[in-house]
Write a structure and sequence with these properties.
50% of the residues lie in helices and 6% in strands. It is mainly α. The chain has one domain.
């Protein structure tokens, strides 16, 4: 698919469509480039990242802040702040779709940032709602590992035996292995720089 046909979040390596803010200069963020679709200001209002893992890392840091600084502990609360009505979103429909994709019984399901299985499911689900398409499990896991490393968080990846992701069965052991691999690679990169 041509780049200008891709959803904005995918084009920008920003699958949760984080808006530009003078308060944040994210690692891996690149200067805004003109919109290939001619959307003008709409494109420039969103962060653009060097690769998907950097956009996902930034999303996880924001979600961590929503949970731990602002006390937004449910799917509904996180989504309502992430995609507010003032930005022409429908937070209730968004939260209901995220709940469904996460396979949870309620939009009031309590989120815990250190529960890696839930965080992977949350970002996976939000990316689908934002872009209408899936993003790579490995990009999600790598972004989560990088965010946890930067915030000195040791998550647990239990709570599920396996999870079907992009038609592949991801076991708890595989998630743990991938997380540790990506975290180690990121820690080594930080040492080199």
């Amino acid at each position: 698919m041509e780049n200008d046909k891709l959803p904005r979040g995918i084009r920008n390596n920003n699958p949760l469509n984080i808006r530009l803010s003078w308060r944040n200069k994210w690692k891996g963020q690149r200067p805004p480039s003109p919109s290939p679709t001619g959307e003008g200001r709409g494109e420039a209002a969103f962060c653009q990242f060097e690769s998907m893992k950097w956009g996902i890392r930034a999303a996880y840091i924001l979600i961590h802040n929503y949970i731990h600084i602002y006390g937004l502990h449910t799917i509904q609360a996180v989504v309502t702040r992430w995609a507010p009505v003032v930005d022409r979103n429908d937070p209730d429909s968004y939260a209901a779709r995220v709940r469904e994709l996460m396979e949870k019984s309620s939009v009031n399901y309590r989120l815990d940032f250190s529960n890696g299985a839930d965080m992977v499911r949350l970002v996976y689900a939000m990316a689908i709602v934002e872009n209408g398409t899936r993003i790579s499990y490995h990009a999600i896991m790598e972004g989560y590992a990088m965010a946890c490393a930067d915030m000195n968080i040791e998550p647990h990846l239990g709570g599920i035996d396996s999870y079907v992701y992009e038609d592949m069965d991801v076991t708890q052991a595989a998630m743990q292995h991938d997380f540790e691999k990506y975290r180690k690679e990121y820690e080594e990169l930080k040492i080199q720089n």
